[in-house]
Structure formats: C-alpha cells, structure tokens
Amino acid sequence: MKYLLAITLIIGLIQIKASGQEAKEIELEKIIVTNRRSPLGLSQATENVAVINEDELKQLPVQNLSEALKYIAGVDIEPNKGFGRASQISIQGSDSRQVRVMIDGIPFNSQSSGQVNPSVFPIENVARIEIIKGAASSLWGSGLGGVINVITKDTGQTLLPKGSFTTSFAEFRTRKENGEISGKAGNLGYYLFSSYMESGGKGPKDDVLEKKGFGKLSYDLKDMGKITGSFGYSGADVNSGVFPNGTWQERPYRMSYGKVGWEGKISDADVKIDLKHSRQDLITKIHASLDDEEPMIIRYKDLLYQLSLTSSTRLRGQDLLVFGADFDCDAVKSNLFLSKAKSVKLQAPYVNYSLKLDPWDFNAGLRYDRNSEFGKQVSPSWGLVYHLKSIPETLIRAGISRAFNAPPLLWKYNYSGDFWTAPNPDIKPERAWVYELGLESKPVSRLWMKFSLYRADVWDAISWAQNEAGLSYMKNFEKFRRQGGELQLKINILEGLDLFASGAFNDIVDRATRKVVKGGGKARESFGLGIEYRNKGGFNFSLKGYYDWWNAEPTVYFNQLGEEVSVGPNDRKMLCDLKMSQEFKNLAFFLNIHNLTNSKYWQDYFFPLHERYFEGGVTVKW
After folding, report:
1. Is 520 helix (H, G, I), strand (E, B) or coil?
2. CA–CA separation, 383 and 45 (whole Å)
3. Is 597 helix (H, G, I), strand (E, B) or coil?
4. What number of other Cβ atoms are within 10 A of residue 513's Cβ?
5. 167: which of 42, 146, 302, 530 lies 20 to 30 Å off by Cα?
6. Closest CA to 332 of 399, 263, 412
7. Which CATH superfamily hosts domain 2-20+31-621?
8. Domain map of the chain by residue range?
9. Which residues have a Cβ under 8 Å from the Cβ of 495 and sit 6 or more positions away?
10. 417-441: b or e for each residue (b if 16 or more CB lie within 10 Å)?
C-alpha cells in the first residue's frame, strides 16, 4: 500500500510540468442507478432521493462515508468517539439495520447484527453517493428504512496516467496519506487507490490505525461489451479508550469485497451480469483493566456471495423496462454466540417499469424474495411524478410501496449465557406499507426547495424483550408507526455563494402501548445549516452545522467505585465543521476545523464527540 502512495507521488511530480491543458467543465443532469438499477434522470425518480457527487464531497470536511452522510436531511448518524469508531445510520427514523448499504451494488448488512458501519469506507475513491429515503424493497429486497449505494470512481480513459496524492496532519498525533492513479493502456482501463491513517487519540488505549485500498480494472471488448473487476479492502486496529469503570476494548476489523462483471447488449437490451463477494471479520476484545493480558474475545465472520442479473430496455425511446434476479448465499460464524456456522440462501426475481407521459412519470415495480430462513416476501411499489409547467423546475412526487426487513441470522440462533442472551427461532421479518409525498421546486432562479412527508406502518416490528428466565432476546411486536417530514432550502445569494437550511422530524410510536419509541439511534428532530462559497480563483469555503435530538434514555453504568451512575444524552446543540481550501492548477491546500464551537456532545456517554480539533493538508494533482 505504501508503494502505491510513493508511485502516485512520483508520477504526479513528473506530470505537474507536463500538464498544459485545463479540463473544461461540463454540467450534466444528475444520473442515479439505485432506484432503478439502470441509469435514469433524477427528475424522473418517484422516490425521495439525494445524490452527493464527487465535486460536492471535496468541499466537505469529512474523512469517511459516515461523516459525509451526517449533513444529509433525513439521514442521522449516531455520533462516535473519534477516528475509526463505529457509527449507526438512521433514515426517516429507521433502525440502522433497516438501511441497506452497498458499494457498487455489493450489500454489506451483516448476518450478525444486520447493521453496517459506514466509517470503514473511504470517501476519496467515491464518484457519488446515492441515498433512497424510505422503502426500496421492490428492487433491492430487505431495506425497510432506505438504501445507500456508494458508486466508486471509474477506470481512466487516458494513456498518460492521472491521479493525486494527499497528506494531512491533525491533532491527537493524527496523520493520513492517500493516493489514487488511473489511466488506460489499449483496451485495459485501471483505477488504483490506497490510504493510511493513524491517530494516537486523546487518552490511553484510544489509538487507531487504518489501512484501506481499492482497485478497479475494465477491459473493452468492443462490440461484445465490457468486463469489469474490482477489489476493496478496509482494515483497522481500533481501541475504545478507557471507560469510567476502568475497562477498555479492542475492536479490530478486516473487510474485503469485490465483484467481477460483464455488461453489453443482447438485441436491444442492456445486460449486466455481476458476481459479488464480501467478507467481514469483526473482533471485540474486552479488557478488565489497563494491564489485562487475557481479554474476553468475541469473533464474528460474515461471508456473502451474490449473483445479480439485470436487463434494461428502452421502449418508445423514453420508457424503461428493467428486470432481473439476485441469488445470494450468506453465512455467519461466531465463537461465543453460535455453536456452528449458519447460512441463508435467497432467490429474488424483480421487474420494474418506468412510463413517461409528459408531464407525468409513472413507475411500477415488483419483487419476489424467497428466503431459506425467513420465508417468502412479495414487494410491490407504485409511484408518480407530475411536472408543473406553470412554475419552473417544479414537480410533485407520490408513492406507495410494500416493504420488509429480514432479521440477521444471529438473532434466530444465538445463545450465550455469559451475555444473558437467548435465541428466538420464531422471529419473523418486519413488514410495512410505506407512503410518501413530496414537492420539489425552483420557483425563482436563486431559490431551490424540497418538502417531503412519509408514513410507515410496520407490522412485526422487532425490538428487545426478556423471557421468563431473564434472558434478553429480539422479539416481534404487534405494530409500530413511523411518520414525519423534511424540508430543505438552498439560496444562491451571489455568484458562488450559497446558503443551506434543512429540518426533519420523526415520530415513532408503538401502536400497542401508544408510547413514543425512544433510543436506538433514531433522532426525533434534526436541523442543518450551511454556507458555501467558491470563486474562480480556486478558493473554497464551507461551513456546515447540524443538530440532532436523539430522544434517548439515560445511559446507566458502574464507575470504578462500583456506584451506579445514570447519564442522559448531552445533545440538542448545533455542531459545526469548517473547511477552507485553495486550489491551483496542480496543487491544493486545505484546512478543516471540526466541532468549531468546541461543544461537549454525546448521544451515548461512553462515546462522546471529539472536542474541537484542526486538520491541515496538501494535495498534489496531475
């Protein structure tokens, strides 16, 4: 990995002098793929979709996928202690396990917890992030809360390699280097990326060491299509810091993923065949004290193999018919919670049709999931978009869909007397009807706004319970209701100067008890504010603020004296991050200030947000 960083830097320095032409900026309509599994204009999406492109990502003071998502309205990221720590995603008040997270269509929701830690994924190799807020089961299957699909950068197109090298330094003895290089030799295109980050942390046993890499190759078969292969790796040694009772934890992880695929034309249809794979090795070592050399060790291993077939055809030149199937084999192992490995198999055909009848866009989808452990699910969906002609760039969206979320295998089979947990062999998938309504408009040239409402009626909702023996297990409850809305505004004050504001509200109720559901990383209220400025001289300024009310119960723990202490969330305050950068032809400098107001903030008392810290760096490009 270090050799790739050195190579990219050497080539970059050589090519700084050789580069003599400035790239022309071409603005294209945003294209999304997650909501149809085939390219489609954003204005035709009947779902509530957000897209962050590569240029927008560069303006954000972020290090990984988790940090990038926290600025999106309706998406809440549970705060963590610092670099490399696990975080949870919630979309429209969903549980983290109900959000399907993918890299280039490779799913990562584990069979051990159902969740994905977005902090493990780098941001520098990303072309765009696509977020579907709300159910998307009619195409992607298990995903009651939403879908996040990260699209990585494509292979290069030029014989002379292009790339960049970035080095940065931050407080807490933190440094990071990353480099990328891309090009094309004959019919073979390539893209390579790697990064290295280490941080000493603020206190003892608070250090982090991360290594990440990604590579992609494509071979052009001319009239016979194109073959593409990619491989990614994320690994880290992460320590928790010392808890108030004197214990601490090691949480190393190793993750590898990749896919090989062919895409081309068969008759008039665009066809894609992808074979995908992911492996996640997660370890927790629980130390009773600083000098404890024999910790309790918990291991999880998740393995996924998936074959995806997709065919898309344009009808009448503007309608889109997409159909295909997914075939999954997923397995999980655990040294403490399972006596032997458990696996689940899935077959899921789907079809989706997008019809355009100006000024209307209609969409209908259907997917049939056959799960070897959790039975059969049918997921239909209907949606429409109406484009108002009387108001510029204004449209109304509406949709209704049937959704589900399959629980992880571990909840069905786990047992560990040491952790007072029990299996639930009768656990069932959560099911829901989801309703959405939205308005998007640009009534005047300098104002853009978006307003959305949602409601999800969830049957067999899953939450913690206790059996007669006092053991905890996951249980299906009768019915939960989630509803809420979000509002986004963007105002262009002057050329290059934009203001942003957003707000979201989630109300989650257990219909059986009529009580508001609390905790679980679900924000009840969230707000966002921001200002961005760019000029033609390459100067960029971005100030982002976000506010979350987590509506969580107090954390109860025992201190070193054995006393029981209860501490509630310290939230309900605006957190701000700042990024300033100056770009030249082949050089860029940046300064990030995280937690600008130096606020003391936590949702979970054990994992407070870092105090204010500074980060600066330089990027060499060619």
Report:
1. coil
2. 9
3. coil
4. 10
5. 530
6. 412
7. TonB-dependent receptor, beta-barrel domain (2.40.170.20)
8. 2-20+31-621
9. none
10. eeeebbbbeebbbbbbebbbbbebb
Q: Three-class SS string for 405-443? A: ECCCHHHHHCCEHHHCECCCCCCCCEEEEEEEEEEEEEE
Q: pLDDT (tens digit, 9 = 90+) per residue, 310-353?
A: 999 999 888 999 999 999 999 999 998 998 999 999 999 999 99
**How is residue 66 annotated by DSSP?**
H
- The per-residue pLDDT for range 521-555, each reduced to its tens digit, is 788 999 999 999 999 999 999 999 999 998 888 87
Tokens 């605006």, residue located: 574
Q: What number of H helices and E strands is found in the chain?
A: 5, 37
Q: What is the dihedral of CA 249, 78, 33, 382, to 10 degrees?
A: 130
CA–CA separation, 520 vs 81, rounded Å? Answer: 17
Nearest to 69 by CA among 164, 146, 6: 146
CA 175 to chain centre: 24
Enter the tokens of residue 548.
């979350």
Question: How many Cβ atoms from other residues are within 10 Å of residue 494's Cβ?
Answer: 8
- CA–CA separation, 423 vs 418, rounded Å? 14
Q: How many CB atoms lie within 10 A of CB 253?
A: 21
Continuous segment of H or E residues that includes residue 377: strand 375-388
What distance in Å separates the CA atoms of residue 124 and residue 510, rounded to the nearest whole number? 41
The single-letter code of the amino acid at 106 is: I
Q: Which of 78-92, 230-244, 305-319, 570-584 has the lowest mean pLDDT?
A: 78-92
pLDDT > 70 fraction of the chain, expressed in percent and rounded: 94
440, 486 contact by CB (below 8 A): no
How many C-alpha atoms does 14 have within 13 Å on its Cβ side? Answer: 10
Average pLDDT over residues 98-108: 95
**How far is residue 539's CA from residue 164's CA, in Å, rounded to a whole number?**
19
Q: CA distances (Å), 476 to each of 424, 507, 522, 559, in order? A: 10, 20, 19, 34
The DSSP bridge pattern shows strands 146-152 and 99-103 to be: parallel
